[in-house]
Design a protein that fits this description.
The chain is an alpha/beta fold. It is built from 13 helices and 15 strands. Helices cover 36% and strands 17% of the residues. The chain has a seven-stranded mixed beta sheet, sandwiched between helices.
């Protein structure tokens, strides 16, 4: 039979999804799987949420599309207000796009235009500094600022490389130091890079508050983000938080930067913004950035066909309304503590888990050959995939990745269930994961 759908990988045997219900997805044979990673940490409210579906259907019956170059809609205004209400500080200005890659591209372009509006067309501030072990999207622009080598190497000739500093990967510290004696060299590396390039050329610094699938939920020390904020302020550089994965309640706060009381200049977010019910992403910007455009040229020189799409806006407004009414962020914090304690216990009892790390309902496992030396498994084994297959047999879906060690080595996987998970479902997830890891250990030992 000819296959018309171009698959993501011709070497993967995909499960055949039939329908979803809450935290679960059912295949065509009727087998039930607990969605332990919310797809890719996106289905924050689970599957077939009747409130969100009803809101989208209502908008569909009213108006499905209105081009943003000519129309404003009440539903887009409502969605923007709901998002801005949850953002920290004076992050009051929302620009909607179709996904995370577009959101990051938008943030980078806004950062550049802000300085042109403020200082004139001769402004030299255009460089964005990124970090290694980061993922910001799959477009040419986002790949240039990201440091996920496995995803970039084929396309290196297509983009202009952006400068990068090490990420906050304490388990495998770039500087071979231990926290807190390290003095946060990973944060000071930003100031050093700024001085090397020259602050007059730098528009922004971008980072994920907690590193996502590139390294598996790497959480920074508490001092890290406040230090970034101070450095960026001192050198007149915009701080961009990539909260595509960490935002919208995922870590037990509205946005992950709230854990450290930091207000970035721009937040790029997506995934949980519409919880998978419509393709949606966006940025949230501080007032002075938008005022510079308003009082300058008067127009943001950027746009997409689906900016502020009414269907996506209906999903966003409904998602944020549901989260507020049902205290979903509070549930993520509460269930996150319970889940985290159980995950750490599983990690401690496993011979192949080197570290368990995370916040809220965003957790990562580093898979290793030797816990004492932190030696990874050989790449050809694809250890994260071995664990994934074992968990699938147990009826649990997890999110595997690799390449966190020098861009190509190492294995990790993430656990990130929907934010509406209950205590019995946390227990179910832990039981299935424990059984899956034990099954993977036995398979690897053979």
């Amino acid at each position: 039979m000819h296959q018309y759908l171009f698959p993501r990988s011709f070497k993967t045997n995909y499960l055949e999804a039939d329908y979803g219900d809450g935290l679960y997805i059912y295949d065509k044979a009727g087998k039930k799987y607990l969605d332990g990673c919310s797809g890719a940490l996106i289905s924050n409210l689970g599957h077939r949420n009747k409130d969100i579906i009803a809101a989208v259907e209502k908008q569909f019956a009213k108006l499905e599309f209105a081009h943003p170059s000519r129309w404003r809609t009440d539903i887009a205004e409502e969605a923007a207000a709901a998002v801005a209400e949850t953002a920290p500080g004076d992050l009051d200005n929302v620009w909607f796009v179709s996904g995370g890659s577009e959101a990051v591209e938008t943030a980078l372009k806004l950062a550049r235009q802000y300085y042109v509006e403020r200082d004139g067309e001769g402004s030299g501030k255009h460089v964005t500094i990124g970090r290694w072990n980061s993922y910001h999207g799959s477009t040419i622009g986002t790949m240039s600022v990201a440091g996920s080598m496995a995803r970039r190497r084929v396309f290196l000739p297509l983009f202009k490389e952006s400068p990068k500093i090490p990420s906050t990967y304490c388990y495998r510290c770039h500087f071979r130091k231990r926290y807190p004696q390290c003095g946060l060299l990973c944060a000071h590396a930003l100031e050093e890079m700024i001085q090397i390039i020259g602050p007059q050329y730098i528009s922004s610094f971008i980072a994920e508050p907690i590193v996502g699938s590139t390294a598996g939920a790497v959480v920074p020390p508490d001092e890290y983000w406040p230090m970034l904020r101070e450095i960026c302020d001192r050198y007149d550089i915009l701080l961009i938080a990539d909260e595509v994965m960490t935002g919208c309640g995922r870590t037990g706060k509205n946005f992950c930067v709230d854990h450290w009381n930091v207000v970035p200049d721009i937040i790029a977010t997506a995934k949980g913004m519409a919880a998978g019910y419509m393709p949606t992403g966006g940025i949230i910007a501080r007032n002075h950035l938008i005022e510079a455009i308003k009082n300058g040229s008067g127009a943001f020189m950027h746009g997409h066909t689906y900016n502020g799409n009414p269907m996506s806006a209906a999903a966003v407004a409904a998602v944020f309304r549901y989260m507020k009414e049902h205290k979903v962020v509070e549930n993520a914090a509460k269930m996150g503590e319970l889940l985290g304690a159980g995950l750490k216990k599983i990690g401690e009892g496993s011979a192949i888990i080197g570290e368990v790390r995370g916040k809220g309902l965003m957790w990562g496992f580093e898979v290793v050959k030797d816990k004492a030396s932190k030696e990874p498994f050989e790449k050809k084994l694809a250890a994260a995939n071995v664990v994934t297959r074992a968990c699938i047999e147990e009826g649990l879906i997890i999110y595997p990745s690799s390449g966190q060690i020098t861009g190509t080595g190492g294995d990790n996987f993430m656990i990130g269930p929907p934010l509406v998970i209950t205590e019995p479902q946390v227990k179910e997830l832990l039981e299935k994961l424990k059984a899956g890891i034990e099954k993977a250990e036995n398979a690897i030992a053979k």
